[in-house]
Amino acid sequence: MSGGARSGAWIAVASAEHVRRGRAGGFMQVCHGKAAPLRRIRPGDHVVYYSPTDRFGAADGLKSFTAIGTVLSGEPYAFDMGGGFVPIRRDVSWWPAEEAPIQPLLDRLELTAGVRNWGYPFRFGLLPVSPRDFDLIAGAMRAAMPEGLREELAA
């Protein structure tokens, strides 16, 4: 990136059904709507969602990357979903992309290569990922990255 500043890259974790809601609404939320994790993310950071399941609470074994995008400007904000549930969200510009299973990437990602219990870090709901891993995931998703982003990640 120019000026020595670097955007962060993150993996967020949620069921695919929840990710689809976020894509449709242009937002992300993590960790059952908690604010603290979203405060770690900055505008311009890149995020990819990993979905262990298609539906929340199901044991359907989806285990795929399901959305990818760039965090927009603005602070995390509360959104009243009704019924007393007020999660914290961040706005995201989602990129056109396909879902991609994690299995073929496990031996190639720095995060998981050679790690027997590779799924453990995903339990925290939000984790940083290297630019190399982010680029590898984006490629597997056939993501339409914004112009110049691939070079930015390589810098």
From TrEMBL:
Stretches that traverse the bilayer: none
Pfam family, one: EVE
Ranges where the EVE domain occurs: 10-138
CDD domains: EVE-like (cd21132)
Xref: SUPFAM superfamilies: PUA domain-like
Domain of life: Bacteria
Family: Belongs to the UPF0310 family.
Protein name per Swiss-Prot or TrEMBL: UPF0310 protein A6A40_12310
Organism: Azospirillum humicireducens
